[in-house]
Amino acid sequence: MKSGKAVGPDDIPVEVWKCLGEAAVEFLASLFNRVLESERMPEEWRRSVLVPIFKNKGDVQSCSNYRGIKLMSHTMKLWERVVEARLRKVVEICEQQYGFMPRKSTTDAIFALRILMEKYRDGQRELHCVFVDLEKAYDRVPREELWYCMRKSGVAEKYVRVVQDMYERSRTVVRCAVGQTEEFNVEVGLHQGSALSPFLFAIVMDQLSEEVRQESPWTMMFADDIVICSESREQVEENLERWRFALERRGMKVSGSKTEYMCVNEREGSGTVRLQGEEVKKVQEFKYLGSTVQSNGECGKEVKKRVQAGKSRKKKKKKKKKKKKKKKKKKKKKKIILYYHTTLLRGYKQTAVMVDNQQFMMENRERILAVENSFSPGGKRLLAPGRVLIGEGRLLKLCRRKPQPKAFYLFNDILVYGSIVVPGRWNSHQHILRLEELEQENLEDGVGMSNQWVLRTPHKSFRISAESTEEKRAWMERIESCRAEQLKRLGLPAVTKPFAAIWIPDTASAVCMRCAGPFNVAQRRHHCRHCGFVVCNFCSKSRAVLKHISSKPVRVCRLCKVSLHQQDVINGAFRKKDSIEEMPEYEESSEEDQEENHTHTTWINTYQEPEPVYCYFNPKHAKPSASTEHLKNPQTW
Q: Which Gene Ontology cellular component terms are annotated (predicted)?
């Protein structure tokens, strides 16, 4: 027990027992053994002095904004600590309780909440939090409920009777600025200022919330401060009602006016939470256990508050002591550390989350900018909020004329690829595929083909090949994982609309796949956009609107022309402007039909490192390894 505490009615401070040494230990051991055997404590210990302490918030003239602290006998507090040590050996408290538990503190609870908020912010998903406030929590605990919870927790009956004796015939007086009131009995609630009360309250909360914790596991408690978290507003509202019912049926009361709701990474129209038909106050920031948490997941306001608190403490220290003019620099430095240690560095674990996140964001931004600059000036902007570069590598894309190596870049929401101009420095012909529209199909190895699979989208479909089976498996797993996360993030189902056809290579057929006419200088090869077949000019004079590819008419073969026309007639969607049109005899090939130009240009990418092989990225936020020679491989992210 610490020294310097206010004494109780017996006016015996704990310093007396500390000064007496071994004699005090022998006397107290004999006294406590007699109290334990008789289950009766001295009558002087039952008296206390109640001092109202202002909570530093609300109206000063309102009694509800004061907390009553009891000044009790220090000798009784020593006895309570002995009983508490015995109870902790037999009672197990749930992991969600952080208050007054060994090896747990407020920083652990704040750190856990911030980590949860950071993860949902990085995943661009909403996290709904309700901060529950119990009205007069310690003062409302029914005594009969306390005995019941102690027995249910496995406390021996003898210690239940010992605790009952502490609360029997307890009397107190209220001390204020004008004097003291008459003595009166206290028949409800726990003793404020008692050494045993925090653990007794933890036992009560553990038993009252045993059933509701199983239905809402995302809950953290620090004594009477409860945080309920969920992925949806409806679920957190349902869990809040369960907690209210579980607590109020056993004598506790939830304060609807002080309970607050906060949505992390909120989207438009997320709504509010109701408690018994009334809206819970919605806030953008909340002071949780002395630390300000923000709905955007940042720590800026908390850092500023810590800095200001450190400066205020330093100013107060200067007023109390006059500094000498000549001081050594080392002493000054020690003074500064002393001023700031308890205030500026409070909750430094929470700041580490922000520092790690900021470091990752900067490194990720540099990687994305390097990819973006490699496609300049014709490439689109790739840097976007929440976008993360998962991995990159070189794969073989099976084009219409011949296979060509392409640079592929996998992000958490898109897949980007382009032609390699200077390996590891810059690329051309940027193409962007949205992962929510993407579908993969595995291809079995055969004669002349190995490690291949198909990427399908409504606008473009093609085959790609990897150098090894392991590389192929890694790419497919990463793409599928990012695609599933993106669909979950957007709340969309899997793609069901038609995909673009895969073009058959020119070398696969020497004759038209419709009329069997041979190809020559006059009879050129063309591709049907609907079926992907290689057809001659005569068989591909028609155009049709394929809405999943383009709003403009595209080239189709004769057979597809008939089937599309019949389908439009059946669906009643046939219109004049969407009808089949004849194409001119000779037409310039589109960019897709031409082989990509690899002419060198003058722009230089900021990414000057040599061409990397495929790098497997684990999209978890951690510091990348600094020993890699190529693009950092954050397997420890």
A: early endosome
